Amino acid sequence: MGENLALNVESRGYKVAVFNRTTSKVDDFISGRAAGRNFVGCHSVEDLVKSLSRPRKVMMLVKAGPAVDALIDQLIPLLEEGDIIIDGGNTHYADTERRTKEVEDKGLLYVGTGVSGGEEGALKGPSLMPGGSPAAWKHVKKLFQDIAAKVGRNNNIPCCEWVGPRGAGHYVKMVHNGIEYGDMQLICEEYDLLKDGLGLTNDQIYDVFASWNEKELQSYLIEITRDIFSVKDEETGEHLVDKVLDTAGAKGTGKWMSQLALDLGVPSTLVTEAVFARALSARKEERVRASEVLSGPKQQKIKAKIYEASGLPDSFISRVRTALYASKIVSYAQGFVQMREASKEHDWDLNYGDIALLWRGGCIIRAVFLDKIKSAYKKDPELENLMLAPYFQRALKRSQTAWRAVIQQAAKVGIPCPAFMTALAYDDGYRRASLPANLLQAQRDYFGAHTFERTDKPRGEFFHAEWLPLRKEPPADS
Predict the structure, then answer these.
(1) Residue 310 has what pLDDT?
(2) pTM score, two decimals?
(3) By C-alpha distance, which of 53, 117, 41, 60 is closest to 80?
(4) What is the number of other CB atoms lying within 10 angstroms of the CB of residue 473?
(5) Is 87 helix (H, G, I), strand (E, B) or coil?
(6) How far apart are CA 158 and CA 151, in angstroms?
(7) Which of 24, 40, 182, 406 is 20–30 Å from 280 (CA)?
(8) Which residues are known to be catalytic?
(9) Do 263 and 280 touch, CB atoms closer than 8 A?
């Protein structure tokens, strides 16, 4: 990814110096992909710094954690006031908060930027989410916006804008990744419904995803999922997806988002279910053993009307598409709520419409869907929850019957759909003026004197009841 980003920068008319602690990699790059181009190969950090003009801009693409701190420690004595250190890795936002202050205390500037789009995005144009020292933005803005993906009618709107101070950029990138976890899990669940629930072939599933990618679900993840179902294994000639072991890995950003949601007290339930689904998938041998002794519903297939013309159960497939769209609304709504609460907590003053635009191109979750989010926040920058925007209100209302039918059918035949289910549960809970938490708080007060507020008193007044002496005496033989 670092190589590709360097090639991207050079292709926009910049001279680029490169360094890797394995110097043979530098030499291979200079004599290979960078041959004849405007690059300088460096064999030490000192050589790298000497080759740059001021204010120097040094971008790190190394593994998050101690390696970043070690490289910063190497750089600081070599840099001068006003020089800029840039971290383009998947760094925990709290580390960027700390590093920004430490670097600024040395008279330097710091940028922590999310970079999304994978290796291809790095080369052709990623989504960039920069935060850190505000004074650094004027120095890196042109460079960042030159290399970023472009969207808009004339392809002239860069998917890069200043996010906020200190760790804001890396926090937004983390939420992007969390939403990505949710999107991927939803797609996997619908794949399970189509393949094991309806019995569709890979070729038929390819056709389904191809049709979905032309409508409101058009997105990078739907596009690559479509492609996956067309790929054959070179050794066997069979579909490669069927040869991939069903154990999913994770790098941690989804877990971070769930942990931080708990810290903020916000219900980011969909990303959390997606993280747990990956954890369950990793317990492959245990699941195999369980499959031999645990039983489920006798009905194994979803019963759906078959249309003779296409040979596909169009009615249920349409419902799955609707359920996916509704669940995506919930997923993004939860992500933006978490950013909103984090922004208040850390005084970042995030612009949510701009963030939606950053994700419109270049990144993994890029989708036409994001235009609707941008419009919602443009109309109401203080929007409390995306689900309350008129467009999303209508979309959720139209989705109710299909959404519930999909989940009902999945439960009947024993197909796990934790992301679909938690999305619907959030929708049902969020639109309820009253929840059964009154009983929960009564329980807490009963056993722990945690107090409660009353429906007939002003908010903020707390009461405690002597539940034990006030209770109805149970029968003597109970």
Answers:
(1) 47
(2) 0.93
(3) 53
(4) 6
(5) strand
(6) 6
(7) 406
(8) 173, 180
(9) no
Assign residue 350 a region (left: φ > 0; alpha: ψ between -120 and 50; beta: otherwise). beta
Please write the tens of the pLDDT for every residue from 201-228: 999 999 999 999 988 899 999 999 999 9
Task: Report the alpha-carbon distance of residue 201 to residue 462 in Å, rounded.
Answer: 59
Identity of the amino acid at 73: D
DSSP assignment of 133-190:
-GGGHHHHHHHHHHHS-EETTTT-EESB---EETTHHHHHHHHHHHHHHHHHHHHHHH
Buried b (16+ CB within 10 A) or exposed e, 55-91: bbbbbbbbebeeebeebbeebeeebeeebbbbbbbbb
Number of neighbouring beta carbons within 10 Å of residue 388: 14
**pLDDT, the chain, mean:** 94
Position 475, amino acid = P
Indicate the DSSP class of residue 304.
-
Helix or strand (DSSP H, E) at 335: helix 314-346
Q: What is the pLDDT of residue 152?
A: 83
Nearest to 97 by CA among 358, 348, 352, 355: 348
Beta strand residue intervals within 277-389, DSSP E: none
Confidence category of residue 309, pLDDT binned at 50, 70, 90: very low
For the chain, give the longest Cα–Cα distance: 93
- Bridge partners for 232 per DSSP: 239
